[in-house]
Amino acid sequence: MRLTKFTDFSLRVMIYLARHPDGLATIADIAHEYDIPSTHLMKVVHRLAQCGYIVTVRGKGGGMRLARSPDMINVGDLVRDTEDNMDIAECFSAEHQNCPMLPACALKSILIEARKSFLATLDFYRLSDITGGSKPPLVAPLHMAHDIPSLATARKKKRSA
What we know:
Distance between the termini: 35 Å
Structural class: mainly alpha
Number of strands: 2
Oligomer: single chain
Low-confidence stretches: 140-156
Mean pLDDT: 81
Radius of gyration: 20 Å
Shape: elongated
């Protein structure tokens, strides 16, 4: 799964604000730091403010800051709120139901499970875990992931036999 630039820029804004908790940051500050066009950041900042992740102050001396502590901001929620389309394949969309395999295809249910696992992994982390200040916590494998041998393990066993 690939995140959109919008979500990527949203994560960058949030990381920047978490790393600069004193005072207000500006769009120009973040654009310069990450080499992102200000026009893109204006849209990102608007959405983050609408979703309640940041507080903006208008006017001279204005800027933005986090609305909550980085420990209170879940990365999975942030991605869900900024990623407009979490459809992994065309058949996820109601408009694209013309695949000839659709009636008997099991792939869609597997991809739905993969998307849930992707988001579940992000749900383990808070903004404070990804700001670069310290190592993120070790995450327990998802349900039964440790019971499923990897392809590399299966190949090694086959070669040694």
